[in-house]
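sanity check this:
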Amino acid sequence: MKRLLLCALFLVLGSSPARAADERDPGTMITQAISRILEVLDSRRAEFTENPELLNAVVKEHMLPLIDEVYSGRLVLGRAGRSVSTEQLHAFSAALSNVLVNRYAKSLIGFSSENQIEVLPLKGKNTDKMTRVRTQIKLTRGGFVPVDYAFHKTDEGWKAFDVTVEGISYVLTFRNQIAPRVQAEGIDKVTADIIAGSVSLDE
């Protein structure tokens, strides 16, 4: 379950083309993206069950526009990314994105309907620099898992840059695994290893 939830936001670190500013608020963005993905999943479940890779395009279409890809990539790299060029950052982000999209698409098959995901009202202090969208995932065995999405305001509208599942931040979790390798081996080597599938990313 954590694999699914951690991927729910950060499928996404590849760069995407510039687009007009999105005027929707963060809660609406998450609600509509999840609803649309699950709508397509319900209508093509047999097809996706047979070939989960077909879900990749659906996930990319509806989730990638919500993400501040470059900012998220830099956060994952942390201090290890200080000397990384724009080209290297984009290559790293695209490689990580492909890994996360594959994981998420496979895990989505287990969701039966959008009733399993509830977007809660905004709570606490929210600003342009940080607005947290709280959701909860209903588990088939009973109970809920809290999942919080962190957004900030950009020239293109609100963009997500982190997700926290049961108190565990995606950015911090993957930074702890990736940053030491980047410092020891270099960003190009780590990027190549991610593409080759030789980097094990645990949630």
